[in-house]
Amino acid sequence: MTTQQSFIPNDHCHAVELLREFFGERAAQLYETHGRSLAKILSEARESIEPNMRLLARAHAIAEAAAVELAAQRDVLASPEAVTQFLKLRFAGQEFESFVVLFLDSQNRLIAAEESFRGTLAQTSVYPREIVKRALRHNAAAIICSHCHPSGCCEPSRADEFLTSTLKSALGMVDVHVLDHILIAGGQHMSFAQRGLI
User: Fold this and answer.
1) SS3 of 174, please?
2) Cα–Cα distance between 79 and 82 in angstroms, integer?
3) How far apart are CA 115 and CA 103, in angstroms?
4) Which residues contact 116 (CB under 8 A, 6 or more apart)?
5) pLDDT value at position 11?
6) Whole-angstrom Cα distance, residue 124 to residue 96?
7) What is the pLDDT of residue 170?
8) Burial of 113 (0-12, 13-18, 19+ CB in 10 A)
9) CA 147 to CA 141: how far, in whole Å?
């Protein structure tokens, strides 16, 4: 009988065991040189040409695709935790801001998850007109948008609040609902819907 293991943050031994599948005896040293951060290793893996790093990046991409596949089969609002976990996985180790949109059908099932805009360490420019176009192309009934704060600050800025309001107005004109805007900062998250900001 197999037992399912859970990963506890800062569990050094478990992290090294996970990495050993990709890097063998180099796993412990790699973990240490990246400040005991799986997110930092993943960030490097996304840009690396080293075969084992590329393999790790592909494994992460498979996990992300599997999460999208599961979300397409059920009402995403029935499990807000699963949406948040997917977004944390999506942004893991990312050192720049980006804006991701989850396009949903009338049953709140995922049609597509797209990185709509990519920025710098501290900001990204988002154009509501482009999101409206993509929503119409996907024939979406609703969206959930999200962006990351690599700085680690999980509080929305005035610009974040203004953008959310602008998106809600623009998409409302074509009968697409903005269900939430989720801010991800490392292992933390903040939901506009839970805060009553939407």
Assistant:
1) coil
2) 5
3) 11
4) 99, 100, 101, 126, 130, 131, 134
5) 62
6) 9
7) 95
8) buried
9) 20
Q: Which long-range contacts (CB under 8 A, 24 or more apart) does 77-85 make?
A: 77/108, 77/179, 78/108, 80/180, 80/191, 83/144, 83/180, 83/182, 84/182, 84/184, 84/189, 84/191
Cα-Cα-Cα-Cα dihedral of 49, 89, 152, 147, to 10°?
100
pLDDT along the chain (198 residues), means of 10: 42 78 85 79 80 82 69 61 81 83 91 80 77 95 91 86 93 95 88 89
The region that residue 106 occupies, defined by phi over 0 for left and psi between -120 and 50 for alpha, beta otherwise, is alpha
Q: How far is the CA of 76 from the CAs of 104, 181, 190, 192, in angstroms?
A: 9, 14, 17, 16
* Closest-CA residue to 72 (of 104, 110, 106): 110
Compute how many other C-beta atoms are within 10 angstroms of the C-beta atom of residue 81. Answer: 8
Per-residue confidence (pLDDT) for residue 2, from 0 to 100? 39
What pLDDT score does 74 carry?
Answer: 62
Q: What is the pLDDT of residue 48?
A: 82
Neighbours of 185 (CB within 10 A): 18
CA distance 145 to 135: 12
Q: Catalogue all structural domains in the chain, each as residue range(s) with its CATH number.
A: 12-63 (no CATH), 76-191 (3.40.140.10)
Q: For residue 84, what are the contacts with CB-CB under 8 A and spacing of at least 6?
A: 182, 184, 189, 191
